[in-house]
Amino acid sequence: MLNNLQSSTFINNYNIVDWDQLISLLLTVEGSNVTTDPARWNTDTPGYNEIYTMWSDANFNSNSIKWINYYPGVHFEQSIIDNIASYLNVSIHRSWISRIDPGYFAPKHWDVDDNENEYLKKGKIYRYSVIMGDPTHGHIFIVGDDYLYNCDKGSIFKWHNYRDWHSGINAGMKPKFMFHLLAY
Predict the structure, then answer these.
(1) What value does the CA radius of gyration of the chain take, rounded to a whole number of Å?
(2) Per residue in 105-158, pLDDT tens?
(3) CATH number of the structural domain spanning residue 21
(4) What are the residues whose beta carbons fall under 8 Å from the beta carbon of 48, sequence distance 6 or more?
(5) Which of 42, 78, 124, 130 could bridge 179 with an S-S bond, Cβ 3.0-4.6 Å?
(6) Does 6 have pLDDT greater than 60?
(7) What's the structural domain count of the chain?
(8) What are the Cα distances from residue 15, in Å, to 19, 20, 32, 146, 162?
(9) What CA–CA distance (Å, rounded) separates 157 from 12?
(10) What is the strand order of the sheet 126-131 is part of?
(11) N- to C-terminal Cα distance for the chain?
């Protein structure tokens, strides 16, 4: 189910990747935890302090803010990303898979990137996200004014703006996985 889909555009269901097999692999691999620990953030990069301060001012329960990122060539095969980029007819700036476990969430933020200025030299930045799992009660993704819930596995969404504010919530009973790609 897609609700109020204005900021993002649904492209297609991408089922060339065996999403279940990839999720099974990632469940056995230690990814990179993202938490509210300020030591994990490059606070010299504009944007990080803004987000961290916003969360603190809102009095978020910092123990419930956590997600895990997985990167191509480190945690899974680069060929998966290359295949998707080819399908979308784009070149890759960077890509990753995010995982939010039950009871955790990624509150409102935008993805600050230390290399954004380098990306912009190549032209307009595009962002895509792919739902990796089956429709699951409690798995919610909010981007801009849109919220995605109960989307089919393999659903690809093109963001209106790669810097849109977004949130991921897992009020379900199993991990929530999404694939993300910044491209030109």
Answers:
(1) 16
(2) 999 999 988 899 999 999 999 999 999 999 999 999 999 988 899 999 999 999
(3) 2.60.120.330
(4) 41, 42, 112
(5) 130
(6) no
(7) 1
(8) 8, 10, 26, 23, 23
(9) 8
(10) 8-13, 155-159, 126-131, 176-183, 92-100, 67-70, 32-34
(11) 28
